[in-house]
Design brief:
By secondary structure, the chain is of the alpha/beta class. It folds into two domains: about 220 residues, Type I PLP-dependent aspartate aminotransferase-like (Major domain) (Aspartate Aminotransferase, domain 2, 3-Layer(aba) Sandwich), CATH 3.40.640.10; about 120 residues, Aspartate Aminotransferase, domain 1 (Alpha-Beta Complex). The protein has twelve helices and 15 strands. Strands 2-10-9-6-5-3-4 form a seven-stranded mixed beta sheet, sandwiched between helices. The protein has a three-stranded antiparallel beta sheet with strand order 8-7-12, with no helix packed on it. It is globular. The protein starts with 5 loop residues before the first strand and ends with a helix.
Length: about 375
């Protein structure tokens, strides 16, 4: 019998019998999409949970990113990070916007505010930072720069569902914040996403754009797209809200267990929790340093051969992919921290159902392969 495969993450789903109640109602009403009752209720309950004013639900996070840029009429150049999932930069490409990459901080893996100002040109219209692994960016410094130069700030918070900074939702900051509810995320609705906005007029414009530009039965006010969340996703989202805090607590327990067991292992570094931050523990990244006995890629392959499918998030950098590698700001010398970290990073398995014996086995293997 083959050993059980342990992946870097696994979706947390509510009891099936609870979801069936929603499905039976959907079957009866035959209302599958187009702002149904579960869609409306989920928007309301989600805004309440996140502590924000306005939520617009989307079929997925990538469509939400693309629409967020459209809503704020972003053009020209946007400063962003190469250390993210490729959808971050693809959203710029689909809006005919030129991405301008700047390096990341060594201690957070987030965009380095100290590098942003020198990358600003007369064509710059916005900053698109990412809260990598759910760790908050330097929000205050980024906003200070944006205010000085009159730039918009759109946060890619795909990893940061439920994260708080000094008691405030991470989604309160910037002009817009984009969330993802993909199957790999802490909070999932199969697929799905959302834009968090702070103004009723902007909220209305977002909702026009995600529904073909309709502002009534026979009135189209903008050339929109079809990016709506359906009733199945919304119903699951409503049910997931019942369990999200318990799931985050389980993730925290796993993260603390990893830290305890990895402590003192030569060549392995990991994050500690940040002061004044309520984390969601979406990932557990480690760095495999030069004094570890084998390379990061060798450890990756050996863990995989033992049934642990860890991931090299994020390798390669977005700036190394063929659509973007010819950009002037994709030069390796411009992105030294990002390049180095991408060659050291491994994300270990973390999800609420992960068993302690499986965590212990991952650490045992890391120790085993560190012997000379």
């Amino acid at each position: 019998m083959k050993s059980k495969k342990i992946y870097v993450t696994r979706p947390s789903l509510p009891p099936l019998e609870e979801f069936l109640n929603y499905l039976e109602d959907i079957w009866e009403t035959k209302w599958l999409t187009n702002n149904g009752k579960y869609h409306r209720e989920f928007e309301e309950k989600l805004a309440e949970y996140l502590g924000v004013n306005f939520v617009s639900l989307f079929a997925n996070g990538t469509l939400a990113l693309i629409t967020a840029l459209q809503v704020l009429k972003i053009t020209g150049e946007v400063i962003t990070t190469p250390y993210s999932f490729v959808a971050t930069t693809h959203s710029l490409f689909w809006n005919s916007i030129k991405p301008v990459f700047v390096d990341i901080e060594e201690n957070s893996f987030n965009i380095d505010p100290e590098k942003i100002e020198s990358a600003i040109t007369p064509k710059t219209t916005a900053i698109l930072p990412v809260h990598v692994y759910g760790y908050p960016c330097n929000i205050e410094k980024i906003q200070e720069i944006a205010d000085i130069y009159g730039l918009k700030v759109i946060y890619d918070a795909a990893h940061a569902f439920g994260v708080k900074v000094k008691g405030h939702s991470i989604a309160e900051f910037g002009d817009l914040t984009v969330l993802s509810f993909h199957a790999t995320k802490v909070f999932t609705t199969f697929e799905g996403g959302a834009i968090i906005s702070h103004d009723e007029k902007i909220k209305k414009r977002i909702d026009f754009l995600k529904n073909f530009g309709f502002a009534g039965e026979t009135k189209v006010v903008q050339p929109g797209i079809n990016a709506k969340m359906n009733e199945f996703q919304a119903a699951l989202g409503l049910l997931q809200l019942k369990y999200i805090e318990d799931n985050i607590k389980k993730r925290k327990k796993i993260a603390n267990l990893y830290r305890k067991k990895l402590k003192g292992i030569r060549g392995i570094k990991y994050f500690e929790d940040k002061k004044d931050v309520k984390h969601n523990y979406s990932y557990f990244p480690i760095l495999v340093e030069e004094d570890y006995s084998i390379s990061r890629d060798e450890l990756y392959e050996r863990l995989k051969s033992n049934g642990f499918y860890v991931r090299r998030y994020f390798y390669p950098l977005i700036s190394e992919f063929s659509p973007y590698k010819s950009l002037p700001t994709s030069d390796r010398d411009n992105l030294k921290n990002a390049y180095e970290i991408s060659r050291k990073i491994l994300c270990l398995p973390i999800y609420p159902e992960l068993e302690e014996k499986e965590i212990e086995r991952v650490v045992e293997l890391i120790i085993l392969y560190n012997k000379r």
